[in-house]
Amino acid sequence: MSRKAVFHAETWHLKEPFHISRGVKTAVDVTVAEITDGRFKGCGESVPYAHYGESTDSVLEELKAVAGHVEAGCSREELLSIMPAGAARNAIDCALWELEAKQSGKSVYELAGAKRAERPVTAITIGIGCLEEMAMRAERLKDCG
C-alpha cells in the first residue's frame, strides 16, 4: 500500500473570544495529519495541550517520527503500539479512520460497528462573562442536547 503523509500546523481563529478563569483564547493552534493513498485522502486534527507536556512543535516531531510507518501502511491497530496516547496519535488515528471510510465506501460509524447517533452527545462550555452574556449564550444552546 503506497501512502503519502503530510503533517503541518494551523491556527484556527475562534468565532468569538473564549473566556475562562485562566485567561482568554481567540485562536487555537492545531496540528493536522493528511494521509493519501493517491486516490483518497484522510484528514485528522488535534490540539496539543501544554498540560500534558505537548506543544505544536513536539506534536509535529512525533508525527514526523512515525511518517515512515504510516506511509508503509500502518493500520489503526498498529498505531496503538507504536505511539503513546496524545495529540499526535489522535491526528493520525482520525486521518486513518477517514481514509479507510473513503476507501471502503462506508461511514466511520459503520466501520466502527456503531449505530448512527440521531443526535451526537457533546459538551459545550459557556465561557465566563457578565451574567447577561452568559445567559444569552445558554439561550442559544438550549436546544443542543
Condensed summary:
By secondary structure, the chain is an alpha+beta fold. The chain has helices at 56-65, 67-71, 76-82, 87-104, 108-111, 131-141, and strands spanning 4-20, 23-36, 41-46. The chain has a 3-stranded antiparallel β-sheet.
The number of helical runs is: 6
How much of the polypeptide forms β-strand, as a percent range? Answer: 25-35%
Biggest beta sheet attributes: 3 strands, antiparallel
Low-confidence stretches: none
Tell the overall outline: globular
Structural class: alpha+beta
Q: Oligomer, anyone?
A: single chain
Integer average pLDDT: 92
| Main sheet strand line-up | 1-2-3
What's the order of the H and E elements? EEEHHHHHH
Which helices and strands appear, and what pairs or packs with what?
Layout: E1 4-20, E2 23-36, E3 41-46, H1 56-65, H2 67-71, H3 76-82, H4 87-104, H5 108-111, H6 131-141
Helix pairs in contact: 1-4
Keywords:
145 residues, alpha+beta, three-stranded antiparallel β-sheet, 6 helices, 3 strands, globular
Description:
By secondary structure, the protein is of the alpha+beta class. Helix content is 38%, strand content 26%. It has helices spanning 56-65, 67-71, 76-82, 87-104, 108-111, 131-141; strands at 4-20, 23-36, 41-46. A hairpin with a 2-residue loop joins strand 1 and strand 2 (23-36). The chain is globular. The termini are far apart.
